[in-house]
Write a structure and sequence with these properties.
This protein has helices at about 15-20, 35-45, 55-65, 115-125, 145-150, 170-175, 210-220, 235-240, 245-270, 280-285, 295-310, and strands spanning about 5-10, 30-35, 50-55, 70-80, 90, 105-110, 135-140, 160, 180, 205, 225-235. The protein is about 35% helix and about 15% strand. The protein folds into 2 domains: about 5-80 and about 225-255 and about 290-325, D-Maltodextrin-Binding Protein, domain 2 (3-Layer(aba) Sandwich); about 85-220, D-Maltodextrin-Binding Protein, domain 2 (3-Layer(aba) Sandwich), CATH 3.40.190.
C-alpha cells in the first residue's frame, strides 16, 4: 500500500505535472491542494495543515532557529525572482535611485517574507541601503501573518509599523501615505488584502527604470537567481518513512524536466516563425532552474546570511540544520 500524503502548493509550470497526475512519486499517493503561498505558509506555520508543502525559505529558517522542528526541508525550489528589481515607487516621492529610499516610508506585505528578505539584502549589499534607513509598514496583522505564527518581533534599530485594518498597501501608495513598496501582492487569499493594480497606474513606477537590465546586471555579477520557496515534509513522516524524501525529490525533478521540455517546445515554435532569433532558442535549452543543494548552495547560504544580518535569525542557520540529511548531496 502506498503512503498517502496531503500536499499544499501554488500552481506554476514546474508543479502542474504533480497537480495533474502526470508525475507520481514512487510509493506515495499525493492529495494536492492548490493554495496561495501567503495563505499556505500561515496555515502551515500556525496549524500544520499539510503533510508536505511549499514553504517560505525565510520562515523555515526562522522557525528552525527558534527550535521549531516540525518540518524537514526538501531541496525543491518552486519560485525564483529578482525581487529588488521589482520594487515599486510613487513617482512623486522623489525616488530616482536606491539611495533615495533612505528616510522613506516603505510598504511590505510581511517583513519576514523571503521576497522582502532578498530585496533588503540586495539593497544593502549592492547599494548601501540598510533596513534601518527606512520606515516599514507591514500589511498583515499578527493574527494572520507568518510573523505572528513564529513569534517575530522587529529587530533592534528597525521601525516596523502595522497598516491599519481598514487600509491596505495599494490604497496607501495611491493616497501618498507610502513612498515605495518592497513587494506587492494582490492575489485573493486569507492574509493579503490589497487589490489596486499599481503596475499599470500612472502614479507608480519601478525603482529601476529597466527591471530586466538590473536583473541581468545582478545575475551576471553574482551568479545568484534568488530562491523564494522550497518544500517541507513533516518530521514525523520523514522519520517514519525516510525513503519518502528522495522519492519526492525525484518526482519534482521529473516535473521540472517536463516543464523544461515544454518550454523548449514553445520556444521552437517562436524560432520557426521568426518571433525569436535562433540564438535565443538555443539559450532556452539551458535549464536555469534546478533543484537540490549542490546547484543552489551559494544562493541558499546568501539568504541565510541575510536573515542573520537583518535580525530575523539569531545566527546563520546551516543548511544541514534545515534539509534532510539524505538530500544534502543532491
Amino acid at each position: 500500500m502506498n503512503l498517502q500524503l496531503s500536499i499544499g502548493m501554488a500552481s506554476n509550470p514546474r508543479t502542474w505535472p504533480i497537480f495533474d497526475g502526470r508525475v507520481r512519486p514512487d510509493g506515495i499517493d499525493l492529495i494536492p491542494s492548490r493554495v496561495h503561498p501567503s495563505e499556505l505558509f500561515w496555515r502551515q506555520l500556525k496549524f500544520a495543515d499539510f503533510d508536505v508543502s511549499e514553504m517560505s525559505f525565510s520562515s523555515l529558517i526562522m522557525a528552525k532557529s527558534r527550535g521549531d522542528e516540525r518540518w524537514i526541508g526538501v531541496p525543491v525550489f518552486t519560485t525564483r525572482k529578482f525581487y529588488h528589481a521589482a520594487i515599486l515607487v510613487r513617482r512623486k516621492a522623489g525616488i530616482a535611485s536606491p539611495a533615495d529610499l533612505k528616510g522613506k516610508r516603505v510598504g511590505v506585505p510581511e517583513y519576514q517574507q523571503t521576497a522582502a528578505l532578498w530585496a533588503r539584502g540586495v539593497l544593502q549589499d549592492e547599494f548601501g541601503v540598510e533596513p534601518r534607513h527606512m520606515e516599514f509598514w507591514m500589511e498583515r496583522g499578527a493574527s494572520r501573518s507568518h510573523a505572528g505564527a513564529v513569534g517575530f518581533t522587529a529587530p533592534p534599530g528597525v521601525t516596523i509599523r502595522t497598516v491599519p485594518p481598514e487600509k491596505n498597501l495599494g490604497g496607501m501608495m495611491l493616497a501618498g501615505e507610502l513612498d515605495a513598496l518592497l513587494h506587492y501582492i494582490v492575489d485573493a487569499n486569507l492574509v493579503d488584502r490589497s487589490s489596486a493594480d499599481l503596475w499599470n497606474h500612472p502614479d507608480v513606477g519601478t525603482l529601476f527604470p529597466d527591471p530586466w537590465a538590473e536583473s541581468i546586471r545582478y545575475y551576471r555579477k553574482t551568479g545568484i537567481f534568488p530562491i523564494n520557496h522550497g518544500m517541507v515534509i513533516k518530521r514525523a513522516i520523514a522519520e517514519k518513512h525516510p525513503w519518502a524524501v528522495l522519492n519526492l525529490m525525484k518526482a519534482f525533478d521529473r516535473a521540472n524536466d517536463i516543464a523544461n521540455r515544454e518550454r523548449v517546445e514553445h520556444a521552437e515554435y517562436h524560432v520557426a516563425t521568426g518571433l525569436l532569433p535562433r540564438e535565443a532558442g538555443e539559450a532556452l535549452r539551458t535549464p536555469v532552474v534546478r533543484h537540490g543543494i549542490r546547484a543552489n548552495r551559494t544562493t541558499l547560504e546568501t539568504a541565510a546570511r541575510y536573515s542573520r544580518e537583518q535580525g530575523l535569525t539569531p545566527r546563520v542557520v546551516p543548511l544541514e540544520d534545515v534539509f534532510a540529511a539524505s538530500a544534502m548531496e543532491q
